[in-house]
Amino acid sequence: MNPVPAVAALLLAPALVAAGADLAAGLRALDANVLTPEERVFHSLDLRRDMQARIAEVNRRDREAWTALKSRADWEQFVAPRIAALRRSLGTFPPEPEKIPVHHTRTVEGEGFRIESLVYESRPGVFVTANLYLPAQPPRQMPAFVIIHSHHNAKTQSELQDMGMTWARAGCAVLVPDQLGYGERRDHQPGNRQDYRYRYQSALQLSALGESLMGWMAWDTMRGLDVVLQRAPIDREKIILLGSVAGGGDPAAVVGALDRRFTCVVPFNFGGPQPETRYPLPADVDATFNYLGSGSWESTRNLALSGRDGFLPWVIVGSLAPRRLIYAHEFSWDRERDPVWRRLEQIYAWQGAPQNLAFATGHGRLSGRPPEASHCNNIGRTHRVLIHAALEKWFSIRAEEYSKPVAAEELRCWTPELRAQLQPKPLHELHAALPTNHAVADAKRLAQLPPAQQRERLRAEWERLLGEVNPVANPRVSPRGLVNAEGFDAEKLSLEVEPGFVVPLALLRASGSGGQRLPVVVCVAQQGKAAFLAERAGHISTLLGRGVAVCLPDLRGMGEVALPGSRGQQSEATSQSATSLMLGQPLLGARLRDLRAVLRHLRSRADVDATRLALWGDSFAPLNEPGFADPLLGEGAARLGEPAGGTLALLAAAFEPDVRAVLSCRSLVSPRWLLGSRYTYVPHDAVVPGAALAPDLLFLAAAMPDESVRTAEPLSSRNLAQEPSVRGTVQFDRASGKLSLRTHQARETASYGDWLAAALLRTPGAANRN
Questions:
Q1: Does domain 34-53+438-623+636-761 have CATH number 3.20.20.80?
Q2: Which end of the chain is more exposed for a tag (fewer CB within 10 A), N or C?
Q3: Quick one: average pLDDT of 364-374?
Q4: Are 358 and 333 contacting, i.e. CB atoms less than 8 angstroms apart?
C-alpha cells in the first residue's frame, strides 16, 4: 500500500474543512430574499386574495342558481344533490343499529319532572353521556326535544337545565347530551375554555381519518333521538331539535337535513347573517352577501367541500322545508334586508307551508354587553320567548319558564362501576385503531405490484385526496439577479406558477461550475429558503462542494411569501386552510402543484441535469421539550411542528418518476402519527382529510432504488422528537410487503449532504431494486 495518498489526504483535510466552513458561513450570510419589501408584503397576501375571489365566485354562481329557480320542482331538483353531497362529505356513517345500548345510572326528582342520567353507545366504543328530562307523570304520548349545546358549555349549564325542566313540566321529553369532548366526554384536562382547543384538535384528527367532527356530532344526535324513542312514548309528529348559539346551531341544521324524523328544527346563528355580520345590512346586500362564509378553527361552521359542492349554509337550512323551522338569531336581526330570510319565505311558499316558518331573535350586537346585548351561553330566556310562542301555535306546547338548576354532580352519568364494566377508551385511542387494518391491507396490495404500478397506485390515492396537483402551465420566469459570492453563485428568480401566485427561489451552484449540467437538490420548508440556509448551511456546502446544485423555492404561503404571525388555532393561516377545504382542496395539494411547477422549470434549463433530481423537505420549527406539560389556554401555546416540507418532498417524488432520492426531515413519518395522542400540535394546513387511511407515502421505497428514501429527526403528533428506531433509510421487503427503517447512528444529521450527493452521483441503474 502506498502511504503517500493517505498522508496527502491527512494534510489536505484541515484545508478542506476550513474551505467548507467558509462556504457555509457565506451561505448563512446570503440575503435569501428575492422580492422587494413591497412585493413581499403584496405576495404574502396572495392566498387571501385568491380565497376572497373564489368565495365571491361561489356566491355569484349561487345567486345565479337561485334566480333560476321558479317552482317547488325546481327547488327540489336543486337541493337534493346538494344534501346528498353534504352527507358524503361528513365521513362514513356506521349501519343504523336496531337498538341503542343504554345505561340508566341515576334519577333526580324535581317539581313536576325527573331527570334520568344515561350513558348510551352511539357507535362501537363511543359512549355518550346525556340527561333525559321527563314529566313526573308522563302522558300517553308526549313531544320530544333534543338540544345540542354550544361550544361554550356541557350539558349541565343552567340555560340547558332551565329548558329541560321547563319543557318536562309542560309534558315533554327533553334529551341534553354532552357533545364530543365536553362534560363527561372530556378526555383532556379541565380548564377555562379548554374544550375549544380540544374541539379543534379532535376535528383535525377526525379529518385525517376521512371523518368529520360534524359527522360524529350528527351521528351522536341521531342516535340520541333513538334513545328518547326507546325510553318514552313519543308523538312522532312533535319531535323538536334545538341547536344553541356558538356551535350548536350548525349541527342542528345538518342533523335536521339528514334525519327527517325531526319535525321542527331551531338552528341558532346558521344559514344567514352571523353575529359578526354588519348590522344593519347594507342596501346592496343581495349582491354582496357572503352566502358561503369563510373558514375558521370551528369546523362545524365552515363545512369542507361546501363551496365546491354547493351545500351552503342557507341551502342546508332551506332543505328543512316544509317541516317547521324557527330561524334563530342571538342578537339583533335585520329581517327586512336579510336575503336568506327572503329565500326561506319563497321556499316555504313553494312548499305551500308558509305557516311553518317562524323566527326568534335577540337584541343588541356581539360587541355589546348585557343587558344591552342578548349574549347567552346556549339559548337564553329572551330567545325562548318567540320559541315558546311558535311551539304553542304548532304543537300546543304551553310552557311556563322554570329555573331551579341543580349541581352538576347530581347530573353525572358515569359511575365507577359502569366505567369498570364498559372500560371506555379515550377518543384518540379509538382513532388510532381505525387505520391499522387499512395500512396492513395497503401493504399487502402494494407488495403484489411491480414498482411502476406501486408508484401509480400511490399517485392515484393521493391525487384523490389532494385535488388537482398538475401544474396549470409552464411557469413564467422573471430573473431577479445573480449574486457571486465566495465559493458559490446564487441565481435569484421568481416563477409565476399560475395567475396570482409567485414562487421566489434561489438556485445555488459552486463557483466555476458554469456551463455544466449539474444534478440538483430541491429544498422545501415552511420557514423558507432563508431558514434553510441558516440551519442547514453545512449540508448545502457539502452538496455544492460535490458538484450538486441546490434549489430553494418558497411555495405559496411559505417562507418569503408567508403571512406573518402565528399559525395556530385562531390564526389567519388556519382560516385560509379551512377556507381552502370549503372550496375543495387542501392547501398541501396546491403547494404540491407549485413544487411540481418548480421541477418543470428546472427540467427546462440547460444547466440542470433533469435526470438527477432529489428532494429535501425539512422544518426548523422548535420542538417541544421531552416531558413537557400540555398547556391550558392562557398558559401559552405549545410549539407547533411544521411537517409540510417533508410531506411535500415525499408527495412530489410519488408524482415525479425521475426523482432519484428523498430526504424527509422533521416531518411525520406517517399521517397516522397524528392520532398518537389526544393532542395534535401541527398547523391546520398540515392535515390532509383522509390521509391516515391512504397508502403510506413511505411505500415510495418500494418503487425507488435501494437507499433512496430517508427519514430523519421525525416528529410525534405533540411535536416531540421520536425515538431513533423510527429514523433512517426506508427498506421495503417485497416478500412480506413490510416497510422497515435501517437506523443510522447518532449525529445522523452530519451525513445529509453526503447521502444526497451519493444518491445523485451514482450511476443510474447501479442500485438494485427490492
A1: no
A2: N
A3: 93
A4: no
